[in-house]
Design a protein that fits this description.
By secondary structure, the chain is an all-alpha fold. The protein has four helices and no strands. It has a domain of 46 residues. Helix 1 runs antiparallel to helix 2. The termini are far apart. 28% of the residues are buried.
């Protein structure tokens, strides 16, 4: 059980670094939702929550995170 949880947390942390890519709020919400859904499905399957449930939770969290960021926050090169 602990190994599944650790795997899920590592995957979540790595996917969090990719969320909210885009120039507009809508693009960031869409990309964050898509990346969150994929990551949530993997984490849900690994932890026993279920891929569908994980995708719903991850997609919602990713979309909210993407919409809450602005272009300046994600442009780490400048």
């Amino acid at each position: 059980m602990l190994r599944k949880l650790a795997t899920g947390l590592v995957l979540a942390a790595s996917l969090a670094s990719l969320t909210a890519c885009g120039d507009t709020t809508g693009q960031r919400a869409l990309s964050g939702g898509a990346i969150g859904a994929g990551g949530g499905a993997i984490i849900g399957a690994a932890t026993g929550l279920g891929a569908g449930t994980g995708a719903l939770i991850g997609g919602g969290a990713g979309a909210l995170t993407g919409a809450a960021t602005n272009k300046r926050q994600i442009n780490l090169g400048n």
